[in-house]
Amino acid sequence: MRTGIATIPLDYGKCPRWLFERMKRLSRAISLAIVEEFGQEEFLKRLSDPIWFQSLGCVIGFDWNSSGLTTTTLGALKEGMRGLEDELGIYICGGKGKASRNTPEEIRMFGLTRGFDFYEKLIYASKITAKVDSCLVQAGFQIYHHNFIFTKDGNFTVIQQGMNTQLQKARRYHWLSLKIKNFTEEPHSGIVSDVKLKPLNLVARESKENKEISVEMVREEPKTFLKNIKKISEKSSVELLPWQQFYGRRNFLMRQKRLPGFCEVELNDVEFYYHSVEREKFDLKRLKKTIEKAHFLKPENFENLLMTEGVGPKTIRALSLVAEIIYGARPSYEDPARYSFAHGGKDSVPKPIDKPVLNSTIRILEWAIKKAKIENKERSIAIKKLYNSIGYEKE
Questions:
Q1: Are strands 137-138 and 262-266 parallel, antiparallel or unpaired?
Q2: Largest CA distance in the chain
Q3: What rounded mean pLDDT belongs to the chain?
Q4: Which long-range contacts (CB under 8 A, 24 or more apart) does 131-134 make?
Q5: What is the torsional sign of CA 337, 341, 346, 350?
């Protein structure tokens, strides 16, 4: 599995106009060079690689460790490519805040005006990628930036970013249609992060059974599920006795007393220390309404369930919790993030340098900068920023 996530400091403020104009010009020149030499598909692949994208942002002039690198780089790229979409066969939709919510309409506009018969599929892809990263990788990051880049052949890449105001971090998610086999299982295209958490990770293969049981609970009579989640919610808020705390620290999921024909279950609050629903109060009335609506629609699979209107992070958490506690189908709590967003360090911190990846990043960007139709001084500065941003010295 390669999952496209970058975790970076959350910054506020606005990019200066002079810098943004330079970023537009330089990102356009580099993009034109790459598309003309390697084609549209390779351009999408490069954008879907978090390390390459990070390097691109550094080259065109932004801070290497700022959350603004994502939003400003993509904003500059979108503005820089404006008017060249049909010439290049590449269309950039979405952006930050309100612009992200307008993504489906932008895709539809391009589809109708260019005669693309696949635009409805792209709209669906835009919506489900946003929902997957909001609901299936629950680490406290709220999506606020969503860019959808597609070609005239219908291939696409998605770059979106979420913020966690408590951690003061932003996390970036990368997708590439050429690598997606299942939107809800191992769907991302690259991975990069400098912090690892304990999220509810339902895109992991290890969570497959948990998701299957969640769908079955919705498809069958939902009264049993609602009864179970109510019990779990009530038990999880009870103050623990010393002996319960002792067993809880030993990671006992539950304590049971069995008598002939009777089973009493004690659910300990501390067992949820690894779970995303710790100390959470579910709105059972609202949850009941959502589950009953989903039950009426009879989703065929987890993807259909996820795309049901009204089904959000809390509904998914509730279903996952019951599937784990009652049916023993434990989901993954491993953060899909694997590496730092640097290439690595000479002393193997935070990881050994991945030379093939490093060389590939340098080679493509260096070539594109040299081919870009820009002034020699600007070209020289861009090359220098490339080497500085990845800690690389040309031999």
A1: unpaired
A2: 86
A3: 79
A4: 131/306, 131/307, 132/183, 132/184, 132/187, 132/203, 132/306, 133/160, 133/162, 133/173, 134/162, 134/312, 134/313
A5: negative
The token duo for 34 is 């790459």
Quote the CA–CA distance of 13 and 300 in Å, as a whole number.
Answer: 45
The conformational region for residue 180 under phi > 0 = left, psi -120 to 50 = alpha, else beta, is beta
Average pLDDT over residues 229-240: 66
Query: pLDDT tens across 40-95, in order?
Result: 999 999 999 888 888 888 777 655 445 678 888 999 999 999 999 999 999 999 99
Helix (H, G, I), strand (E, B) or coil at 3: coil
pLDDT the model gives residue 121: 98
Is the pLDDT score of 249 beyond 80? Answer: no
Residue 84 phi/psi, 5-degree rounding, is -105, 5
The Cα-based distances of 154 to 6, 115, 273 in angstroms read: 26, 12, 43
Q: Which DSSP string corresponds to 253-276?
A: S-EEEEETTEEEEE--GGGGGGST
- Measured CA to CA, the distance from residue 34 to residue 81 in angstroms comes to 13
Rounded to whole angstroms, the Cα distance separating 327 from 322 reads: 7
- CA distances 37 to 40, 81, 191, 352, 367, Å, are 9, 17, 26, 31, 10
Single-letter amino acid, residue 52:
W
pLDDT at 24: 83
Query: What pLDDT is stored for residue 118 in this prediction?
Result: 97
Taking only Cα atoms into account, the Rg of the chain, rounded to an integer number of angstroms, comes to 24
Tens digit of each residue's pLDDT (9 = 90 or more) over 342-365: 444 434 444 455 566 556 666 677
H-only helix segments in the chain: 17-38, 40-47, 50-59, 68-81, 85-88, 98-101, 103-114, 119-135, 208-219, 223-236, 242-249, 284-297, 302-306, 313-325, 355-371, 376-389
Neighbours of 231 (CB within 10 A): 15
